[in-house]
Amino acid sequence: STAGTNARNAQSDVEKWIDGLELNMKNTNEEDEKQAVLAALNARCQAMVKKDLNALDEIVDDDIVIRHMTGTTQTKQEWIDDIASGALRYDSIEILDPIVEINGDTATISYTSLIAANAYGSYSDSWRMSGTATYIKKNGKWIWSTTTQPQGR
Prior knowledge:
By secondary structure, the chain is of the alpha+beta class. The protein is built from three helices and seven strands, in the order H-H-E-E-H-E-E-E-E-E.
């Protein structure tokens, strides 16, 4: 019957419309997650500049190995101790052109940073470094877990 065909067509149209909504919701959730990762990166940079050791302790993974542009590596605690003592002093950090990729509870951010800092007696107001940082989601929060940064230029 014509009424039955119209009802089936209408049902099909509604199902397609609902499927489209689900795709949009997935994209929104992924974009929200990407924004949350970028917010975590920005919070880390702000904590570094403000010398907020408590915030750094919360937003940096305990097992991280931090690699500096000199090739030197540090544990989380060694890095935080150097910030506390002033051996590492970050005056400003600007993140340029971040690209976030998310795979489950792991996110990578490729970016360039422009840093003004005093690092172990060497000062520059224009260190430009490119690298990739990995963030992991723990207890619903994105925290910094590894880095292949930095490569100075």
